């Protein structure tokens, strides 16, 4: 095809609603585009299709036809109409057929919605609403003064006091709290021979945390977390508003193995390590942790400590359950699970090996929950998985962890006991309840 179009950021800016995306989002979107070249007579999509895609015509002509006869027209890539998606509906209302050689580009609707959501959120957080005429706001160079010409955003509710240091008190007792921001350059004083020490709750001295409303740069790191990508868009803004920002010090223990869990964490600055007798993992900005104890109702199964000074965002158990846990987890009844398996899903047994060897569902893979982080590369992201355990608690934790890492995963609601008739059993072995 002569003069074949080049797909670049400038070309994306000519399409709607992609033109509303920031340059950074467009740069992220470009490698996710699926460009296709079709010959005359080939189908782009058919009436009734549910493909969850947005399709743009970049070159050539396409005929759109509906079976009821209400639509029969030609769309040319040269026409202004081509700035918009072809039949932006699900299921498709029309069939689209190439009547010349064509070039088109497809985007996954979930990806587009996610990009739009983050851009709109960033704009809403960074841009104050205009104030009524006559309302003054502080001058940028004189914080204590106001000018008549400067608009003022609507008054914000007072920020919640932020719990400082000891991000997860072992005793549950109240700790010192305040809500003043800290500058990015603030650093804890060294202890001993130039190092820092882990500070217990009782020994903690207040360290001021940056409030989410004052520095939105951490939002860019949050958008890479798979758990947030899978959640309903309506939940995202309240989730970010409820997260608390905590400045932490090198050597500080965020989570202690064997203690109860009250928070879900996202590391936005610094580095941390996960240990269970030996080092299990290194955490970088954008890493999240602490969900397993909240989902399973058990104690912490590993410790997390800071390797450098840093900042974590944390979410309480109650907010985690409301905004992240239930919206993210897909729970299946036995009949639904069997149908899903028949279509190619695999059973993932997250119980201990002894439980698995005693009885398990046919064809199930066994990766105990406590080994899942280390053995996740044994799983295939192209394969859907159905997690199960005895009651559904451990499998909920496993499914959440897998979803955060980009797997398509669901949970057998009620645990394997609801499918007892399907189990393959071994003689002479005992079971272990949750």
Output the structural class: alpha+beta
Biggest beta sheet attributes: 5 strands, parallel
- How many helices in DSSP terms? 12
Summarize the amount of helix as a percent range.
10-25%
Please count the beta strands (DSSP E, at least 2 residues each): 26
Q: Could you say which overall geometry the principal axes of the C-alpha atoms support?
A: globular
The CATH class assignment of the largest domain is Mainly Beta
At the third CATH level, what is the topology name of the largest domain? Jelly Rolls
> Largest sheet, order of strands side by side?
20-25-24-21-23
- CATH architecture of the largest domain, by name, is Sandwich
Mean pLDDT across all amino acids: 73
Total tally of structural domains: 3
Amino- and carboxy-terminal Cα gap: 63 Å
- Poorly predicted segments: 123-215, 428-434
CATH superfamily of the largest domain: Jelly Rolls
Q: Over the alpha carbons, how many angstroms does the gyration radius reach?
A: 26 Å
Strand content: 15-25%
Model description:
The chain has 434 residues and is of the alpha+beta class. It folds into 3 domains: 9-108, Jelly Rolls; 163-170 and 177-184 and 203-325, Jelly Rolls; 329-425, Rhodanese-like domain (Oxidized Rhodanese, domain 1, 3-Layer(aba) Sandwich). It has helices spanning 9-12, 23-29, 109-126, 217-222, 226-230, 233-242, 291-296, 317-328, 334-342, 353-358, 372-375, 393-404; strands at 34-38, 43-45, 53-59, 61-65, 72-76, 95-98, 102-108, 137-139, 142-147, 162-163, 177-178, 244-248, 253-255, 263-269, 272-276, 278-283, 288-289, 303-306, 310-316, 331-332, 346-349, 359-360, 365-366, 385-388, 409-412, 424-425.
């Amino acid at each position: 095809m002569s003069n074949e179009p080049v797909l670049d950021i400038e070309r994306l800016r000519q399409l709607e609603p992609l033109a509303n995306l920031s340059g950074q989002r467009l740069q992220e979107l470009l490698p996710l585009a699926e460009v296709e070249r079709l010959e005359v007579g080939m189908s782009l999509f058919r009436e009734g299709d549910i493909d969850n895609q947005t399709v743009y015509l970049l070159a050539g002509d396409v005929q759109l036809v509906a079976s009821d006869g209400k639509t029969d027209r030609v769309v040319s890539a040269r026409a202004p109409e081509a700035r918009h998606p072809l039949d932006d509906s699900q299921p498709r209302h029309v069939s689209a057929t190439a009547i010349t050689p064509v070039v088109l580009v497809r985007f996954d609707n979930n990806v587009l919605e996610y990009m739009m959501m983050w851009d709109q959120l960033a704009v809403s957080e960074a841009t104050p609403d205009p104030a009524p005429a006559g309302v003054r706001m502080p001058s940028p160079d004189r914080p204590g003064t106001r000018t008549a010409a400067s608009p003022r955003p609507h008054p914000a509710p007072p920020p919640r006091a932020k719990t400082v240091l000891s991000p997860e008190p072992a005793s549950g007792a109240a700790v010192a709290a305040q809500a003043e921001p800290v500058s990015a350059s603030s650093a804890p004083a060294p202890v001993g021979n130039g190092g820092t020490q882990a500070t217990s709750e009782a020994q903690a001295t207040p360290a001021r945390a940056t409030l989410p409303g004052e520095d939105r740069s951490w939002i860019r790191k949050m958008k890479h977390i798979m758990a947030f990508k899978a959640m309903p868009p309506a939940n995202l803004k309240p989730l970010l508003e409820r997260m608390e920002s905590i400045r932490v010090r090198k050597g500080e223990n965020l989570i202690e193995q064997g203690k109860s869990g009250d928070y879900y964490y996202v590391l936005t600055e610094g580095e941390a390590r996960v240990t269970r007798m030996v080092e299990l993992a290194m955490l970088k900005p954008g890493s999240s942790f602490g969900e397993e104890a909240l989902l399973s109702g058990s104690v912490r199964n590993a410790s997390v400590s800071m390797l450098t000074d840093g900042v974590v965002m944390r979410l309480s158990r109650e907010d985690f359950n409301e905004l992240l846990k239930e919206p993210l987890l897909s729970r299946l009844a036995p009949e639904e699970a069997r149908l899903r398996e028949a279509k190619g899903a695999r059973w993932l047994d997250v119980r201990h090996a002894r439980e698995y060897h005693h009885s398990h569902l046919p064809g199930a893979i066994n990766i105990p929950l406590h080994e899942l982080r280390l053995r996740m590369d044994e799983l295939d992201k192209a394969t859907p998985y159905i997690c199960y355990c005895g009651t559904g608690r451990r499998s909920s934790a496993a499914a959440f962890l897998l979803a955060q890492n980009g797997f398509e995963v669901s949970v057998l609601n009620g645990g394997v006991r609801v499918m007892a008739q399907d189990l393959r059993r071994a003689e002479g072995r005992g079971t272990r309840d949750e």
